[in-house]
């Protein structure tokens, strides 16, 4: 795999991909590099792995469908190692660029710490990401993607299968008959038709369960604080409060993610509010039920029956009271386990992981901002400009001044809602932090890294008159409460200030302090303040030429003729100390600074 030059390689590994080559030229993603896009909004992701020609390595830690494996193998070295102990996973991970898991592998902080910065993408081949430490992933700049749609129907079908099996005692009667008994009166069930089903969590699976339950003649209500009432109404479901749902239901089916706010949402207090004889189905996550409380509710008769596909601890212990309870039907987390769903999930996650490793855009990122592909395309040259302005600004800070307060101004003829600045902010952060630290910053960890280092980035918009055709007119970066090693970079109000624009797709520096300049931001830059007088450009150009240093651009900005001026000189090669000293010795030059872009 050749090193990618995509400006969207925001997850690139510093050790393998020199920072200076990132965003060297403002390329738009080629058509061939466009994502395998199927839905919704997209997120900038990227990972660059291995040296030029090296294939990335993907560790597949749980069984994945063949079609997905084939897709992965076309692009990467694929290591299928199942049933790894936590220690084995931590050992292997330092050799891997991507990891693919299902719900059976815990991807905790120690995994990210053990990866030594190489792990760029974790792919969760399924929906629930409660087994992945998202905070740790974000802190380590590791993207997490999931496969949120391919197993929806399978999970809904399993929920309905459990609902019907529970109501008609299928599992118990089957076991009884196989044990040689014929117990017709013992296994009289209850009917579904006309009963009230409360769906808790009206997302993808919940709404499919609701649709199917309506087909069975059930009255369906749902509770979901974030669901739209009209979406529910469209399939004949009424959204109600949590208390109304649990207190009026004959059947309750759980379909919310496991989060701190849903953990043990069905607890003693909730069971006490339920109708006596309620029946409960859980194909979401074991942790949304307080399992001890459910045992008590079953024993007291509040809950007549439960059907559980998921458990707090998986696999549950041999003496788990719910598994052994005669009124509980259990399956070993089979919700997503149909041939069709597993094939679909494998393809969905393989596409997402390969896309991320290629530096494309992922539709299913869990821990990075989602930005539409067309917005990213349009912003591409501004993404480059943003990082370079951050880099320039921080290099102008005098040693000993801590960077704490940064103000970014975006000037645009577009309305504030029409300009998504998250990628730009991330790249300014990257530019500000990378030159002064060993931290590698990307779109995933930019905000976290800034916060952790105590750098406050305030954003401001200036709405200009004129055509909103261009997303931005200029970006200005100001660093407050610092001294500058180039005094002319200070604005009238006392901040280091640099400003840039995009001209013909190329980022340009257009203002330093209060001096207007115009130099394309390629290669490196020398800024000199001088007494404005004839011959200065020639004098400096001669010194550089003698050292075979190519000048790509020169621009002089002055306050008034024959007063102070700032000369910005773009150079392709880095001048040595002696050359810089010679420039400094020119009598008309009052101060100068060399900046790497
Ligand atoms: N058993 C299985 O094999 C299996 C298969 C697929 C999904 N799942 C699980 O099912 C759950 C739902 O999956 P999905 O694809 O429908 O996800 P989803 O994100 O589409 O839906 C989840 C819904 O839960 C809602 N929600 C969040 N907090 C809530 C709360 N406090 N009360 C009520 N609703 C709340 C959300 O608003 C969302 O609409 C997840 O936990 C997932 O891991 C299990
Ligand atoms: O969240 C999910 O997608 C399901 O729980 C499926 O988990 P699995 O991939 O381990 O079957």
Automatic annotation (TrEMBL):
<dbReference type="Pfam" id="PF01842">
    <property type="entry name" value="ACT"/>
</dbReference>
<keyword id="KW-0809">Transit peptide</keyword>
<keyword id="KW-0718">Serine biosynthesis</keyword>
<protein>
    <recommendedName>
        <fullName>D-3-phosphoglycerate dehydrogenase</fullName>
        <ecNumber>1.1.1.95</ecNumber>
    </recommendedName>
</protein>
<dbReference type="InterPro" id="IPR006140">
    <property type="entry name" value="D-isomer_DH_NAD-bd"/>
</dbReference>
<dbReference type="InterPro" id="IPR036291">
    <property type="entry name" value="NAD(P)-bd_dom_sf"/>
</dbReference>
<keyword id="KW-0520">NAD</keyword>
<keyword id="KW-0028">Amino-acid biosynthesis</keyword>
<dbReference type="Pfam" id="PF02826">
    <property type="entry name" value="2-Hacid_dh_C"/>
</dbReference>
<dbReference type="InterPro" id="IPR015878">
    <property type="entry name" value="Ado_hCys_hydrolase_NAD-bd"/>
</dbReference>
<dbReference type="GO" id="GO:0051287">
    <property type="term" value="F:NAD binding"/>
</dbReference>
<dbReference type="InterPro" id="IPR029753">
    <property type="entry name" value="D-isomer_DH_CS"/>
</dbReference>
<dbReference type="InterPro" id="IPR029009">
    <property type="entry name" value="ASB_dom_sf"/>
</dbReference>
<comment type="similarity">
    <text>Belongs to the D-isomer specific 2-hydroxyacid dehydrogenase family.</text>
</comment>
<dbReference type="InterPro" id="IPR045865">
    <property type="entry name" value="ACT-like_dom_sf"/>
</dbReference>
<keyword id="KW-0934">Plastid</keyword>
<dbReference type="InterPro" id="IPR006236">
    <property type="entry name" value="PGDH"/>
</dbReference>
<dbReference type="InterPro" id="IPR045626">
    <property type="entry name" value="PGDH_ASB_dom"/>
</dbReference>
<dbReference type="GO" id="GO:0009570">
    <property type="term" value="C:chloroplast stroma"/>
</dbReference>
<dbReference type="InterPro" id="IPR029752">
    <property type="entry name" value="D-isomer_DH_CS1"/>
</dbReference>
<dbReference type="GO" id="GO:0006564">
    <property type="term" value="P:L-serine biosynthetic process"/>
</dbReference>
<comment type="pathway">
    <text>Amino-acid biosynthesis; L-serine biosynthesis; L-serine from 3-phospho-D-glycerate: step 1/3.</text>
</comment>
<dbReference type="Pfam" id="PF19304">
    <property type="entry name" value="PGDH_inter"/>
</dbReference>
<dbReference type="Pfam" id="PF00389">
    <property type="entry name" value="2-Hacid_dh"/>
</dbReference>
<dbReference type="InterPro" id="IPR002912">
    <property type="entry name" value="ACT_dom"/>
</dbReference>
<feature type="domain" description="ACT">
    <location>
        <begin position="525"/>
        <end position="597"/>
    </location>
</feature>
<dbReference type="InterPro" id="IPR006139">
    <property type="entry name" value="D-isomer_2_OHA_DH_cat_dom"/>
</dbReference>
<keyword id="KW-0560">Oxidoreductase</keyword>
<keyword id="KW-0150">Chloroplast</keyword>
<dbReference type="GO" id="GO:0004617">
    <property type="term" value="F:phosphoglycerate dehydrogenase activity"/>
</dbReference>
């Amino acid at each position: 795999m050749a090193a990618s030059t995509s400006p969207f390689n925001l997850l690139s590994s510093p050790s393998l991909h020199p920072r200076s080559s990132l965003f060297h030229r403002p390329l738009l993603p080629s058509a061939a590099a466009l994502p395998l896009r199927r839905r919704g909004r997209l997120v900038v992701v990227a990972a660059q792995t291995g040296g030029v020609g090296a294939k990335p390595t993907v560790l597949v830690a749980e069984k994945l469908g063949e079609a997905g494996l084939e897709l992965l193998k076309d692009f990467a070295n694929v290591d299928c190692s199942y049933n790894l102990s936590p220690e084995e996973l931590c050992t292997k991970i330092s050799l891997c660029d991507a990891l693919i898991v299902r719900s059976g592998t815990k991807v905790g902080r120690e995994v990210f710490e053990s990866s030594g910065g190489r792990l760029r993408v974790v792919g969760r081949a399924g929906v629930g990401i409660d087994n992945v430490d998202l905070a740790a992933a974000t802190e380590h700049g590791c993207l997490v993607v999931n496969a949120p749609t391919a197993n929806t129907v399978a999970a809904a079908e399993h929920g309905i299968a459990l609902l019907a099996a529970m109501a008609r005692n299928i599992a118990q009667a089957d076991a009884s008959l196989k044990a040689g008994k014929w117990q017709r009166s013992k296994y009289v069930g209850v009917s579904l038709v006309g009963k009230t089903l409360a769906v808790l969590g009206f997302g993808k699976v919940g709404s499919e369960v609701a649709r199917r339950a309506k087909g069975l003649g059930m009255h369906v209500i749902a509770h979901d604080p974030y669901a739209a009432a009209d979406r529910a109404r469209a399939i004949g479901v009424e959204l109600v409060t949590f208390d109304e749902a649990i207190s009026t239901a004959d059947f309750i089916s759980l379909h919310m993610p496991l989060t701190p706010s849903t953990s043990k949402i069905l607890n003693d207090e909730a069971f006490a509010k339920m109708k006596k004889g309620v029946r409960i189905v859980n194909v979401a996550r074991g942790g949304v039920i307080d399992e001890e409380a459910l045992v008590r509710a079953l024993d007291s008769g509040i809950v007549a029956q439960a059907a559980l596909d998921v458990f707090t601890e998986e696999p549950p212990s041999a003496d788990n009271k719910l598994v052994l309870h005669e009124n509980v039907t259990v399956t070993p987390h089979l919700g997503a386990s149909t041939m069709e769903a597993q094939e679909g999930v494998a393809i969905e996650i393989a596409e997402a992981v390969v896309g991320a490793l290629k530096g494309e855009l992922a539709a299913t990122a869990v821990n990075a901002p989602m930005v539409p592909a067309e917005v990213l395309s349009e912003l591409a040259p501004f993404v480059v400009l943003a990082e370079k302005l951050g880099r320039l600004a921080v290099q102008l800070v005098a040693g000993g001044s801590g960077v704490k307060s940064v103000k970014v101004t975006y000037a645009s003829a577009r309305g504030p809602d029409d300009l998504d600045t998250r990628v730009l902010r991330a790249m300014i952060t990257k530019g500000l932090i990378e030159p002064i630290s060993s931290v590698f910053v990307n779109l995933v960890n930019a905000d976290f890294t800034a916060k952790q280092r105590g750098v406050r980035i305030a954003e401001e918009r200036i709405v200009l008159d004129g055509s909103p055709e261009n997303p931005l007119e200029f970006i200005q970066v100001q660093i407050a409460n610092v001294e500058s090693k180039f005094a002319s970079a200070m604005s009238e109000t006392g901040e280091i200030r640099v400003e840039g624009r995009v001209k013909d797709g190329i980022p340009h520096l257009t203002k330093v302090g209060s001096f207007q300049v115009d130099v394309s931001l390629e290669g490196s830059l020398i800024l000199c303040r001088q007494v404005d007088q004839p011959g200065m450009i020639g004098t400096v150009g001669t010194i550089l030429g003698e050292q075979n240093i190519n000048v790509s651009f020169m621009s002089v900005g002055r306050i008034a003729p024959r007063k102070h001026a700032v000369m910005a000189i773009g150079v392709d090669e880095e001048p040595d100390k002696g050359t810089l000293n010679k420039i400094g010795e020119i009598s008309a030059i009052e101060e100068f600074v060399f900046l790497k872009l």
